[in-house]
Amino acid sequence: MTSPSRPGRDPVSRIVLPGPARSVQGHRAGIVTRVAAGAVDLVVALLGVALMYAAWSGTIFLLGPQSFHFPDPGGLRLLLLVLGLLTAYLTVAWATTGRTFGNRLLGLRVVDDGGRTIGLTRAFLRAAACVMFPIVLFWVVVSRENRSLPDLLLRTSVVYDWTSKGGRGDEPTSTPRAIVLPPED
Amino acid sequence: MDETTAAGTDETVARYEPLSASDLAELVLGLAAVGVETAGRVVERIRPPTLVTAVVTAPLRAAVTDLGSRLRRADWSQELLRRGHSRRGELGRRVEVTAQRVAAAVVEAVLDVVDLTDIVVDHVDLDAVVGTVDLDRAVARVDIDAIVARVDIDAIVSRVDVDAIVERLDIDGIVARVDLDRAVSRVDIGAVIERLDIDGIVARVDLDRAVSGVDIDAIVGRVDIDAIAARIDLDAILDRVDVNAVAQRLDLDAVVGRLDLIGLAEYVVEEIDLPGIIQSSSGAMASEGMREVRWQGVGADERVAHVVDRMLRRRPRTPGPALPATEIAPGPVIPGSAG
Q1: What is the pLDDT of residues B196-220, one digit of tens each?
Q2: What was the ipTM of the complex prediction?
Q3: Could you state, in order of their start, the residue ranges of all structural domains in chain B?
Q4: Do B327 and A106 touch (CB under 8 A)?
Q5: Domain that holds residue A161
Q6: Nearest to residue A93, comparing CAs of A7, A2, A27, A13?
Q7: Does A12 contact chain B (CB < 8 Å)?
Q8: How many domains does chain A have?
Q9: How many other C-beta atoms are found inside a 10 Å radius of the C-beta of residue A123?
C-alpha cells in the first residue's frame, strides 16, 4: 500500500482505470460515497470493538473457566471505546495512506489542497470532528465545492482516487500541484 | 708638245707665210712684255691724283684703242691676233694641268707635315659647327629601313652575353620601382582570360599531386562551422522541402526491419513499470464488484448533488458529468477551489 511512487508513474497506473472513471479522478467526492465510506469505517470500528470484546472474554475464560461469564462493559464505556477506536483508526489511516478501509472500498482519499497526504495533527483533528459531530459531514450536500466543515476548517479534501498506490504525498514534489479548474458545465 | 702645236699651226696657217710657231710665240710674248712694261711705266708715272690720272689717261686710252683698231684692220694683224688667241688658250690649259699636279703634290707634302686633326680640334669650335647643322633634315634623309634591313640582328644577339647582363641587373631595385597597381589596372583581365586555354592548362595540371600537398585538416580547422550554420535559414529550407514526398519514398519496412523490436518492447515495459500496473489492476481493482460499487457511488454523488442544486435553484456544481474518457488529469483536480 505504501510503495514509493515515482514521478510520472501516477498517470501510467491510471491506464488500468475504466474510461469514465478516469475523468473523475481527483475530483472531490460527493455525500453518498463519503457517507458509505464512513459507514464502512464504523462497521470496521464495531468489528474491532467486537474483536476486542471477544479477546477480552477469551482471556477471562482462560483465566477462570469455572467462574466464566461474559463481561458487561456498560453501554457508555462501549460507546466511548467505539468512538475512540474509530478516531484512532481514522487518524492513523488518513495520516499514513490517506485512506481508510471504507475510503479504499469506495475509491476515496483524503488529501490537502496540494494533493498530498495530510499530517498527523490535521488527521487527528479531522477524525475527532467527524467522529464526535458526524453531522458536519453533511455540509457536503450544500457546499458547492463538496467540502464538509472539517474540510473547510482544515483545508482538506476527499477526492476520488481509484488507484491502489500509496499516499500521494510520497511524490517528491516541493511545490503544490497546480489546481485545474474544470469547465463550469 | 712642240710637235702637236706645230702640226695644229701648220694646218691653220697653211695660207700664210712663213712664221714658225716659236717665232710667233716669241712675237706675242715680246709684244706682251712690251705692253706690260709700258703699262707699268705709265701707271707708275701716273700715280698722281685721280683727277690728273683721269685727265692724262683718258686721251692715252683713246690713243691705244685707236691704235688697236688700226692694227686689227690690217690683215697681218688679224692673223697675228688669231694665232695669239689660240696660243693663249693652249697655254691656259697647260698651266691649269700643271697647277693641278703641283697643287696635289704640295697638299700631300703639307699633310704629311701637318696633323690636320690636331689643328681642327685646337682651332675649330666643333660645338658651333654642329649647332649650325640641321640634324633633323639630315636624319629625315636617312633610309632607316634600309639600314635595318642590312643589319644582321641575329648575329648581334648571338654575340650578347645575356647572363652577364642579367647578373649585373638590380632586379629587386627595378621591381621596387614598378607601380604594379597602375600596371595591373591597365591590364584587360577579361581579354587575357579569353585568350587563355583554360582547359589545356587544367589538363596539364597534376591535381592529385597538388591536392596531396594541401593540409585539409588545417583548412577545416580554420573554418568556423558554427558561424556558417548560424547563417543558414533552416526554416526557409524546410519550407521548400516537400516532407510528404520524402516520407513517401521512405522504406518503412526496411527501417522497422532494422529495429530491435524485442529490445524496444523490453525497454518500454521496464519504463512504464508494467508489473506495477498489473499489481494495481489485480490488487485494488481485482474485484469487478468493488469497481461497480465505486462507480455506483460516483453516480449517486452526482445525482444527489444535482437534486440539491435544483432544490437550491442554483447552477449545477462540480463535479458534473464525467469528462471524456481520454482525459487523464496530471494530478488531483479540485473542483471549485477558486470559488
Answers
A1: 888 888 888 888 888 888 888 888 8
A2: 0.76
A3: 2-117, 135-176, 275-311
A4: no
A5: 22-170
A6: A2
A7: yes
A8: 1
A9: 23
